[in-house]
Please model this.
Amino acid sequence: MRIEYDFSKMKGRKNPFVQHLKRQVTIRLGQDIIKYFKSLAQKNDVPYQMLINLYLRDCIQSRKKLSWTSGAGAKERAGAAH
Model:
């Protein structure tokens, strides 16, 4: 193994997988949700966005079903979020 390597003649190359890594989106989350994930992130010493991403990925992989209550109560809760 060499002590030093000369990379000056090496050509740069774009990562072909970069478009498949992650995509920035804007999402509105409740303050309680953000507080929960930030607290959990601090305890585990990881970024809270990573925890949210991992949780959502787990939901997909386990095919978790959303339990949603429709009707007036749901509409009121949705309206309160705005």
Residues 27-64 form one domain. The CA atoms of residues 7 and 13 lie 13 Å apart.
